[in-house]
């Protein structure tokens, strides 16, 4: 039975996805991913369905880490205050060096520094006792880890050291919070590696980008991969490569980033190794971070007016079975659906049998909101013809022979996957526009036409930082940076007209 969706959706108060600002917070709660009613703003409670989805995303990450020989660690949540001072001094030194265009080793460490201090949660008492050394909840784990690295690394035989952890991190977020996108307690993945030299660390960055590619492929969304401009690079990094998703409203959301640290942190934390000839050398380091934003991007990219659509790779329930019962013969149907569920379970398909005593239509709505990729229906007529009905969450129904249950379900899940990829790709392509020509004369700038909200702009760009800054100021868009896949043939720079391979993206960001 199919009912026209719109009145039903309206009746259930589902906003249209066109109105993304309202649709998104409605969906994350309606699909029971999180409950936002916890008494601390920006700290949501993960509900079973949301947590299972997040754990399945983590499993994909764990698999990639195993494949690439990373080892999992788990560091304490608390970090002593003096380590934050150490990090702040390093970061402010590097920032000054970058602004002055000099080598960091030429500058002295100053005492007045700002870093994460404003963003962290402090702990100043233990029981009744005031702590002489306050501690804070980790905003990320560089300082905690790099305190231990010198104890673990002695010689070149200990390298590369490739570690990772999936933990909660905390940032005192002052902007408006939004589930998964901007929160104060973050479900965070971080990989930290140490290498013999810059080249080996660069190889690690390339491996990270391959991991990103595999993960995004499984989550079915295309991404923009760019080397962030210098002014948008974490000062502690030599360079940053960021991975952005284009959200339904055309803004971009950064879902992952990879940093090449060279030996800057190693010098600050004295992380050295002895090389073949007995000399002490500083290691070169990299980090790679992702968070629950991956789930936010999944909700945003694939959902529609009926609810979420879960990629089969991370759907807590890949198949839901709905028995269609009639006055007589319902026992046969119940025993048949139980058999189907067991057969699917034995083949490691995540399946749910919905035998609640409510109308089938009601069940359909519930599972549509949760985004279950595939629904199986079995009624008296199906049983008579030894078949069952499959309804994809992306649309379309097909009937299959009961003997071919496993192969049909696998085939249908693959089709759902392909549909999701195509839809996401077409949304992505529709939201990228070519940058209009830019005229810069002295300190004035003019654009051939005004940029529209809701789009990401792509341009060939050879200009300098000052010109980039003028473009950002004039348009209100941010430079995401240079694409890691440049143009194959040279194009004219939008500012200078010089031919260049550089492909640069501009966007409004989350």
Brief overview:
This protein has 510 residues and is α+β, with helices and mostly antiparallel strands.
Characterize the structure shown.
This protein is α+β, with helices and mostly antiparallel strands. Helix content is 35%, strand content 27%. The strands form 7 sheets. The protein has an 11-stranded mixed sheet with strand order 3-7-8-14-11-10-9-24-27-23-20. It has a 5-stranded mixed sheet with strand order 16-15-17-18-19, sandwiched between helices. A hairpin with a 2-residue loop joins β21 (438-441) and β22. The radius of gyration is 26 Å and the shape is globular. The two termini are 40 Å apart. Residues 1-6 and 107-113 have low confidence and may be disordered.
What's the helix and strand layout?
Layout: H1 5-11, H2 20-30, E1 34-35, E2 45-46, H3 48-67, E3 71-72, E4 78-80, H4 81-100, E5 122-126, E6 129-137, H5 142-152, E7 161-170, E8 185-195, H6 198-219, E9 224-227, E10 239-246, E11 252-262, H7 264-269, E12 272-274, E13 280-282, E14 284-291, H8 293-302, E15 319-323, H9 330-346, E16 351-353, H10 360-370, E17 374-378, H11 380-384, E18 387-392, E19 397-401, H12 405-430, E20 432-434, E21 438-441, E22 444-447, E23 456-460, H13 465-475, E24 478-483, E25 491-492, E26 499-500, E27 503-507
Parallel strand pairs: 3-7, 15-16, 15-17, 20-23
Antiparallel strand pairs: 1-2, 4-6, 5-6, 7-8, 8-14, 9-10, 9-24, 10-11, 11-14, 12-13, 17-18, 18-19, 21-22, 23-27, 24-27, 25-26
Mean pLDDT: 92
What's the helical proportion of residues?
Answer: 25-40%
Could you describe the largest sheet, including whether it forms a barrel? 11 strands, mixed
- Helix and strand content put the structural class at alpha+beta
Tell me the distance between the termini. 40 Å
Weakly predicted, low-confidence segments: 1-6, 107-113
């Amino acid at each position: 039975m199919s009912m026209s969706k719109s009145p039903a959706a309206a009746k259930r108060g589902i906003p249209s996805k066109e109105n993304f600002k309202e649709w998104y917070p409605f969906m994350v709660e309606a699909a029971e991913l999180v409950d936002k009613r916890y008494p601390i703003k920006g700290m949501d409670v993960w509900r079973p369905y949301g947590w299972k989805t997040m754990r399945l995303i983590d499993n994909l990450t764990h698999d990639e880490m195993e494949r690439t020989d990373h080892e999992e660690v788990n560091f304490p949540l608390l970090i002593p205050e003096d380590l934050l001072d150490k990090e702040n001094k390093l970061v402010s030194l590097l920032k000054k060096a970058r602004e002055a265009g000099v080598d960091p080793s030429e500058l002295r460490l100053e005492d007045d520094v700002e870093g994460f201090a404003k963003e962290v949660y402090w702990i100043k008492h233990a029981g009744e006792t005031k702590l002489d050394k306050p501690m804070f909840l980790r905003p990320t784990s560089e300082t905690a880890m790099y305190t231990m690295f010198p104890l673990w690394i002695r010689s070149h035989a200990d390298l590369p050291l490739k570690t990772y952890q999936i933990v909660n991190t905390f940032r005192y977020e002052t902007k408006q919070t939004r589930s998964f996108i901007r929160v104060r307690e973050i479900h965070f993945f971080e990989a930290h590696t140490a290498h013999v030299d810059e080249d080996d660390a660069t190889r690690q960055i390339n491996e990270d980008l391959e991991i990103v590619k595999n993960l995004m492929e499984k989550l079915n969304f295309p991404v923009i991969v760019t080397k962030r401009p210098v002014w948008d690079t974490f000062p502690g990094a030599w360079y940053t490569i960021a991975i952005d998703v284009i959200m339904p409203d055309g803004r971009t959301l950064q879902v992952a980033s990879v940093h090449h640290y060279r030996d800057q942190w190693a010098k600050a934390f004295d992380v050295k190794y002895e090389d073949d000839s007995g000399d002490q050398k500083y290691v070169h380091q990299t980090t790679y971070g992702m968070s629950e934003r991956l789930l936010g991007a999944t909700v945003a990219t694939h959902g529609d007016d009926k609810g979420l659509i879960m990629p089969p790779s991370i759907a807590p329930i890949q198949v839901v079975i709905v028995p269609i019962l009639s006055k007589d013969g319902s026992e046969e149907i119940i025993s048949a659906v139980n058999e189907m569920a067991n057969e699917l379970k034995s083949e490691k398909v995540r399946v749910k049998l919905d035998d609640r005593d409510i109308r089938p239509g009601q069940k359909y709505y519930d599972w549509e909101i949760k985004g279950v990729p595939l629904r199986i229906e079995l009624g008296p007529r199906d049983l008579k013809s030894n078949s069952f009905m499959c309804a994809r969450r992306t649309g379309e129904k097909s009937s299959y022979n009961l003997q071919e249950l496993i192969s049909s379900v696998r085939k249908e899940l693959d089709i759902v996957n392909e549909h999701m990829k195509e839809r996401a790709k077409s949304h992505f392509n529709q939201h990228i526009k070519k940058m209009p020509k830019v005229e810069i004369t002295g300190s004035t700038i003019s654009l051939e036409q005004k940029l529209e909200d809701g789009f990401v702009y792509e341009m060939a760009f050879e200009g300098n930082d000052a010109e980039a800054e003028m473009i950002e100021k004039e348009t209100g868009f941010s430079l995401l940076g240079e694409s890691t896949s440049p143009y194959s043939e040279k194009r004219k720079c939008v500012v200078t007209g010089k031919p260049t391979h550089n492909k640069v993206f501009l966007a409004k960001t989350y």
